[in-house]
Design goal:
The chain is built from ten helices and nine strands. The chain is of the alpha/beta class. It has one domain: TIM Barrel (Alpha-Beta Barrel), CATH 3.20.20.70. Helix 2 (25-35) packs parallel to helix 10 (194-209) and helix 4 packs parallel to helix 5 (95-103).
Length: 211
Amino acid sequence: MSELLEVLAPTPVIAILRAPTADAFGPATETLYKAGFRCVEFTLTTSGAIDAMKDVLSSMPDDLVVGIGTVRTAEHVHDAIDAGAAFLVSQVFRRPLVDAAAARGVPFFPGALTPTEILDAWESGVSAVKVSPIGPVGGLAYFDNVRGPLPDISLMPTGGVELDEVSAYLDKGAVAVGLSGALFADALLPGGDLTALADRAAQVITAVRAR
C-alpha cells in the first residue's frame, strides 16, 4: 500500500465533498474532523474547490489529509498538486494522468467499474482503484463478485455507499471507503445542517473503530 493508505488504515474512510460551490467545505471539514475523519476529497466539479482546499490546509491540523477528486486533465493534476493536494482521484482511468501524478510523487486513484477496467487501472501501477458508482450496480454484492476473482487488487468502493455499509465493505477487503451523499445530505448547501452531519460522521467513525 502507498503511504497514504497506511496513514488512513486506522480510519479508512474518505469523505467526498461535492456541491455547486465550496462555500460550506471549510465548516463541513471542521465538523468531520471533530467527529474523527482524517481524510477528505474536494471535487473539481465544485466551484472554488481548489481555493477551499488551500484554506482548509492553512487552518486545519496537519494530520488532516486533503485530496482533489474528479481529475480529468493534466492541468487538473498539476493545479491540484501545486495547491497542496495529498492525493488525486478520478471517476475514470487515463494512463497519462496517473503517470503525471506519479512523476510528481502524488498518489492517484483512478476510477473503474467492470473487472476489465479495474485490472487495466491496477496494472498502471496505482496503489488502489476506486470502484464507482458501486451502489447503483449492486453495492456489497457487486463488490463481492468483483473482489472474488481479483483478490490481489486494492479496491476503494465509492458512489452510493450507505452509512451502515462502510464496515461491511472494509470487512470484505476494501482498503478504504468513500462516502458522499449519504454522509452529507444537505450539509454542503446553503443553510445545511452541520449538526446532523456531525451525528452521521460520528456514527460512521464509531462503527469503523469498533471493527
